[in-house]
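Let's practice the habit of predicting before peeking. Look at the sequence and jot down your guess about where helices and strands might fall. Then scroll down.
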Amino acid sequence: MSEQEVTCTELKLHAPSEQQRSQRPRNSGSKDPSVPAPPWRIIAVILGILCLVSLGAAVAMATKGHCSPGCPDQWVAYRHSCYFFSRTKKDWHSSQESCSAKGSHLLVISDAQEMDLFAVFHTEAHWIGLRNSTGSGWAWEDGSGVSDMKVISNSPVQCCVVLLSGSLQASSCEIPSPWICEKDLK
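Done guessing? Here is the structure:
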């Protein structure tokens, strides 16, 4: 088996600001179909297509764990951590044990930037390392408290948390769900 060299690229995507959107020229009339598009527009379209193809390839490689230097296979690297997204479902405690067996812990969201990442990429409920085990408030597995993040809870018996569509949702710890493990990038 030959070794393959993989080059990883960090992608930074920014949405245009309201001011940038309002400064875009508006198309005020219909175009004459007999007039060819200017060359710069054709080049822009080609470059846009190439960017989309490259972005799709980068996302595909990252989600398969192929572009994760310092992370085990099937893990994804982001900033200073490696993340594992399970495909199977277990209760919260079994999910925690599964992460421990991999030398990791359930996801601890440390800042707004990390929360934004998971809010964008994920829609299915996943167990994370946040729970209210003593009734004295929500705490992460590493012992840190929940700063400005709000946990949505409908019942006092919901003591564990899933990340669902960018929000922290309390749930019964016995509900089977997939989970996210996290460990330091080596």
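How did you do? The chain has a mean pLDDT of 75.
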